Amino acid sequence: MPTPQYDLAFRDIVGGVLHWQLWSRAGWTDVRARYRRTTFGPFWASISLGIMMVSMGLVWSFLWKMSVKDYLPFLSAGMLSWSLVSGLINDGASVFTAQKGLLETLHFPLTMLTCAVVWRNLLLFFHNIVIYLLVVLIFRVPVTWATLLIIPGLIVIGVNGIWVATLLGMVGARYRDVQQLISNLLQIVLFLTPVFWTPDQLAASGRARMVLVDFNPMLHYINILRNPLLGKFPTLLDCEVVIMLTILGWLVTVAVYARFRRRITYWL
Amino acid sequence: MASITLENVTVDFTIYGHHSFRTALLSSAGGLIRRQGRKSDRITVRALDNLSFQISHGDRVGLIGHNGAGKSTLLRVLAGVYVPVSGRIITEGKVSSLLNSSPGMNSDDTGYENIMTCGMYLGMTKDEILRIIPDIEEFSELGEYLSLPIRTYSTGMLTRLSFGIATSINPEILLLDEGLSAGDARFIERANQRVNKLINRASVLVLASHGDSLIKSMCNRCILMNHGQVVKIGDTDEVIDAYHRLNSEQAAA
User: Fold this and answer.
1) Which of A117, B2, B161, B217 could potentially form a cystine with B203 if both were Cys, beta carbons 3.0 to 4.6 Å apart?
2) For residue B108, with 0-12 CB atoms within 10 Å meaning exposed, 13-18 middle and 19 or more buried, which class applies?
């Protein structure tokens, strides 16, 4: 067992996370840069999300024959959560290739970059949540004790985002097809995951439900955020799956990072 | 005491699956190119070949050699960016590098914002950066421009800013790569003064360049590199002579 490697990897990962002054600044600069000189700034993303929520909410509630009052908040909370989770995965795959210049100039803990990606996506989420507040007010979405679970939910997703971005960032730097593959897969997964449709619309049991609902890791990540947004508690299964995946993901990431950390700059 | 020790440092770059790139490379100058296995797409370029030397406290080392001799790669190894494929490097002291671009600079941010970002990447805290700002203001002579986005700057202004930031730190080991040349004569002179001051604060300088006047004025030791190997280490004048001889030999061949 190459212990010094693990020791270095571990110190690198922790060191990067502790550099919060830098990654919070870098994440914020990214958000600002993208919307510089626009009137609504980052709210442009929120506005387009809002338009999609309303138009899809109206049409699909009609198609599914559900009341708008039930369906639109569900759809909105789902899309809000999805845009955070999928944003982390998408940006994660290109986190190292996007910072080629920096990585070839300086030596620093790489998790600093992945933390910046996570922070950027959380900031966008906070912008988007303004739109959701309107939904809450208009459709009287219940605000309960469970609503408070948004905060731990975001922390859990952030903690997962760091390993996801680090792991996918490494794979994406080595195999460039991965970035394209992931953004394509995410589109498919969006339709397969109960975001636009509810799990109740599937038969109560059966193979489809098992694959798309119970065994769907994305759904459990969505649920730990979506349920509190709707004023409901996440299910025990959601929490169990997310905790398991958090531990598993970090173990794999640390192992891969320890093995390949030194190769990353060579792949760029 | 700051020092750098290299023991049998070798760096190979693997070129992944570039068919056309392979033929282009085979004919070019630079490191030694070899294939891994016969059927494999992969070829590797040996950028640094078994380097061993020591740079000790107070040294101001110039790296000279042709394009592709391995100067920039060596600087990046010294900066910790590339971990050697084999051999090892032992660095004592804090390394700061001014290679090509300034780290983390964002063209839409103002000069002041970039000083902050850049300074943080160079390992300074917010308070330390606030303290060096007057010094950078003075050296860069950018005045009001520092409040404008740096995309409005000319190349020279940008160089003054990034050079000002990089040299305002208190490095123990400073790595510089050519960038100095982008500037007018007056800038080069002021840059020299500033590097001299920096060197008084710092302990080790490693400067890569192929113009020998710069190296003659700044360095007391020199390393001549060719095809990823060290050809000669010694006093600046001797090594520069060797460099000229190498040039004429290659021109004759």
Assistant:
1) B2
2) middle
